[in-house]
Design goal:
Length: 83
Amino acid sequence: MRQGEAFSVQSAKAEAGQIQKCNIVLKELGGKFENEYVCAMLGNLAACRFYEGDVVAATLRFSTHEYQGQVFQEILATDIVKI
């Protein structure tokens, strides 16, 4: 559907202490009212560009974490391939 610009974020797992991150909105196939997902793409994947109308296959990892008494859900796109 749409994709934001890549930006740097702090990461304890990255060698340089920072990693590239990009947000993307993906929509299931099927029609106007299908589910949409706001996903994060990290590292080299964040540099990949996709455009509205591109049909892709994506591997998504769903997780939750708690911060200051609130629970947040995250969706990480670990692989995206244009079909």
